[in-house]
Design a protein that fits this description.
- The protein has helices at 3-14, 26-45, 56-93, 100-106, 213-227, 321-357, 371-384, 398-417, 429-463, 470-476, 488-495, 502-514, 582-589, 621-631, 679-724, 739-756, and strands spanning 116-121, 124-130, 146-152, 155-163, 169-175, 188-192, 199-203, 229-233, 287-295, 302-310, 518-525, 530-536, 551-555, 563-571, 574-580, 595-599, 605-608, 637-642, 645-653, 666-672, 775-777, 802-804.
- The two termini are 23 Å apart.
- The protein is elongated.
- It has 16 helices and 22 strands.
- By secondary structure, it is α+β, with helices and mostly antiparallel strands.
- The strands form 5 sheets. Strands 2-1-5-4-3 form a 5-stranded antiparallel β-sheet.
Length: 829
């Protein structure tokens, strides 16, 4: 075996062997594998639905509209039952003058919920007042108060019943006539009561014999009765379905959609987001029935909305395959580029430096592709053959190769999402219709909340005057049908306000503040100074006289938040003031989808569901155009650009016949199309996620190449250049278990050969110390030999001592005298 072969074998044993995660080939391979995994995930995530489906946004909007209608009916039932309980309580306290006729009259008429009432005993009707009451549907001998729903020839009724103290029963009823602002062809609003079959309240007729719609309505109503809400999508539309007659306008009585009753919860999800989907036999462009049902609670009534919606086209399970294949191609490009620009040159440089470290001068130097590798190879050549000129180095550097490897997946990501820019998927017409209905319901809710608040303040002010009975005040204080939130104090406020003393006034204030509509209730004198209260929070309204009479006023002296209040004359020189809670009004607006604003005719914002500056002006011209049309009495809905994004915009003005018409308020709503659950938009989001994953892999690979390959290689090239320029005293130590570490070790061997001679070529004995600690080999130090070990017959061999080399500027200790203790012996390895 020749000396060079022996040195080669010894050097190979000393050089580090790259293992995962070390090695210059690992970053490009891991990034390529990650891109392939992202491509596989893209194929799975971008697979379209197997069948044509209904947009989830349609089912979601229709369910929300149905919830608003059901919430209004629920509130109507709650306020009506509370008025019956208040009347029954007054009847029980008046033992001496119990009059059934007066009791029946007290719960009907005016702003009461009920339109007819009867007083029953075991023998039949004792006294009736108002419209007919379907008493035949009630269970005999009922001992608990409640509300039920009944259908007869006149329509669907809410029936409330309360047992009286003398064993009789007070029963009242009202006919439900819910109303939607807009009903398109084929759309219906159906009421399913507890007793009797369902009835179409508005829209196209739905017969119980319809083989398509009847099972869907029955199934949705049954599911909603158990879960609160449900949505069902049919498999095909009725052949030749035509819109039925439009329902009549609502008459007096309960108005559906009014009032902030709680929403139903826990229903089935929308069809486009995990709910029911259209069957496989439906063709693209066919309309299918979508049925949404919401229960109103204890009354047993279920509100069902039926609409016919066009199907969206089905997708392909391989719709993401072209993107995935192109991404796999990018992964191959990154792998090849990393191998050609980084891995292969470094491995050839390792072989070249290993040959130089064993003294093999006949190795042919290949042509180098990258700048740092060529610089190191040139340093080795000049170290072995000084005085040679420097060759021209390539322009391609390792960090540029790393940037190109990262730019490939980033460029693919940009190309993948670029077609989606500037194109918005069309908004289904039913979504716009439902948004318009929601805004109309919410607008009426806010209007009636303001009106009923004023009515309640006026009632309490009148109840505080002498001669006003507590029972009459309680009946009148029930509020308008379906208006506002009936809190615990709404029914009892009138009963507690008969006293004219300070205790009675305080009870009235506390009762008004307890219903949640008002933030602060107090009494002021003619100068505006608070003389009683406040109940609730501190008043926003500054001191000052209130306008004469009664009404709803906004105090524009307060700019932090709108100081909207209702006031009524309590006595000469004294007024009752109740400030509306803006958060309560914002909660009413928040029941509709999107962002809603309550603005005045100058487009100053009074309430905004997404935060706002009080009385800030709406500056977007599209929103102002919608508000202008609403103030002019025209209803419009359309898709426009708001703040750089597309949105469905509609507006509705508050009732011009109400007591607050002088305020000139309107509700403007905008629903971002980006928030709609559409099949095309879901595909966009998934494409965006795949693109972001590819960008993440590219940036991760860039950082990996730069910090673990390019920068260490650049530092090693600088050290090699200094070595070629004659700096043989500075050791080259780069502790890395990869090709760069092997090249650094070979360069240090070349440095030692240049400093100490050929005996330091590959295969020489080397001590492995800590990184950064320079070492040098010293000759044997002569001196007196110490005593031999006990029993030793031969001298102990001396090894070469290895001592640290002092750095520039270090203090070198003085040598020890000859009589000093001998240097410790170092055994051979």
């Amino acid at each position: 075996m020749g000396s060079q072969e022996w040195r080669r074998i010894c050097l190979d044993r000393q050089l580090p062997r790259p293992r995962l995660p070390a090695g210059v080939a690992v970053p490009s391979r891991v990034c390529a594998l990650a891109l392939v995994l992202v491509a596989v995930a893209g194929v799975v995530g971008l697979a379209g639905p197997a069948h044509p489906s209904v947009p989830g946004a349609v089912v979601e909007a229709q369910t929300r509209t149905t919830e608003l209608v059901a919430g209004g009916i629920r509130t109507t039932a709650i306020t009506g039952l509370q008025s019956l309980l208040a009347a029954a309580e007054g009847y029980a306290h008046n033992e001496a003058g119990r009059d059934p006729r007066h009791l029946a009259e007290s719960v009907v008429g005016g702003r009461s919920t009920w339109r007819g009432s009867v007083v029953l005993d075991h023998g039949g009707t004792v006294q009736a007042y108002g419209g007919p009451v379907p008493v035949g549907s009630l269970a005999a001998g009922s001992t608990a108060a409640g509300v039920t729903s009944v259908r007869d020839a006149a329509g669907v009724h809410l029936v409330g019943f309360v047992p009286l103290a003398d064993g009789r029963e007070l029963v009242a009823s009202t006919t439900l006539r819910p109303h939607l602002a807009r009903v398109d062809a084929g759309q219906s609003l159906v009421l399913v009561p507890r007793v009797g079959g369902w009835a179409v309240a508005q829209g196209a007729a739905v017969s119980s014999d319809d083989p398509v719609l009847s099972p869907l309505v029955a199934r949705a109503a049954a599911d909603a009765a158990g879960r609160g809400a449900a949505s069902v999508v049919g498999t095909a539309a009725r052949a030749g379905a035509a819109p039925g007659p439009t329902g009549t306008a609502p008459g007096p009585g309960a108005t559906a959609g009014a009032g902030p009753g709680p929403h139903a919860t826990g229903g089935a999800g929308p069809a486009g987001a995990g709910g029911a989907t259209a069957g496989g036999g439906s063709a693209v462009g066919t309309t299918v029935p979508v049925v949404s049902a919401v229960s109103t609670g204890d009354s047993g009534l279920t509100v069902v909305s039926v609409a016919h919606v066009a199907l969206q086209p089905q997708g392909s399970p391989w719709s993401g395959l072209p993107l995935a294949l192109s991404l796999c191609g990018v992964a191959v490009v990154c792998l090849v580029l990393g191998h050609i620009g980084i891995v292969a040159p470094l491995r050839r440089l390792r072989t070249h430096c290993s040959a130089a470290a064993i003294g093999d001068g006949g190795t042919h130097a290949p042509r180098w592709r990258t700048r740092e590798v060529a610089r190191i190879a040139d340093s080795v050549r000049r170290l072995r053959r000084p005085g040679q000129p420097r060759p021209t180095r390539p322009a391609l550097s390792t960090w540029l190769v790393a940037v190109l490897c990262a730019a490939a997946p980033i460029g693919w990501a940009v190309a993948a999402v670029a077609p989606d820019q500037g194109h918005e998927p069309p908004v289904p017409a039913q979504v716009a219709v439902d948004l318009q209905n929601q805004v109309d319901i919410v607008g009426r809710t806010v209007q009636q909340a303001l009106d009923s608040g004023l009515a309640q303040v006026s009632t309490e002010a009148g109840a505080a005057a002498p001669g006003v009975g507590a029972g009459a005040a309680g009946a009148a204080g029930a509020g308008p049908a379906g208006a506002g939130a009936a809190g615990p104090g709404a029914a009892g406020a009138g009963a507690s306000g008969a006293g004219a003393g300070s205790a009675g006034i305080r009870a009235q204030l506390d009762a008004l503040a307890a219903n949640g509509r008002f933030r602060s209730v107090y009494v002021v004198d003619a100068t505006g100074r608070v003389t009683a209260g406040p109940a609730g929070r501190e008043p926003l309204r500054p001191a000052g006289p209130v306008p004469p009479g009664s009404g709803v006023v906004v105090d524009e002296r307060v700019t932090r938040v709108p100081a909207l209040y209702a006031h009524a004359r309590l006595a000469p020189g004294s007024d009752l003031v109740a400030e509306y809670d803006i958060r309560y009004l914002s909660a009413l607006l928040g029941r509709a989808d999107g962002r809603l604003r309550l603005v005045d005719e100058r487009f100053r914002t009074w309430v905004d569901t997404e935060g706002y500056q009080a009385f800030g002006t709406v500056r977007n011209q599209r929103l102002r155009d919608a508000g202008t049309a609403a103030f002019a009495g025209r209803s419009s809905v359309g898709t426009v650009t708001v703040a750089g994004s597309r949105a469905v915009v509609t507006a509705v003005a508050l009732d011009s016949e109400s007591a607050t018409r002088h305020l000139g308020l309107a509700v403007i709503a905008e629903r971002r199309t980006g928030d709609l659950d559409l099949v095309e938009r879901r595909e966009r989001h998934r494409r965006l996620l795949v693109a972001l994953a590819a960008v993440t892999v590219g940036l991760g690979g860039l950082g990996w190449h730069l910090f673990l390959v390019a920068l260490p290689l650049r530092r090693l090239a600088g050290a090699a250049g200094r070595l070629a320029d004659g700096d043989t005293r500075t050791p080259i130590s780069l502790a890395r278990q990869d090709e760069i570490g092997a090249i650094a070790l070979c360069l240090d061997i070349c440095r030692q050969v240049a400093l100490y001679g050929p005996e330091r070529l590959g295969g020489a004995t080397r001590l492995r110390g800590a990184v950064g600690v320079p070492t040098m080999v010293l000759p044997i130090i002569p001196g007196p030999r110490g005593p031999d070990p006990v029993g030793a017959t031969a001298p102990v061999p001396r090894a070469r001592a290895v001592v640290p080399v002092p750095r520039a500027g270090a203090v070198v200790p003085a040598p020890r005298a000859a009589s000093a203790a001998p240097v410790s012996r170092v055994g051979r390895r």
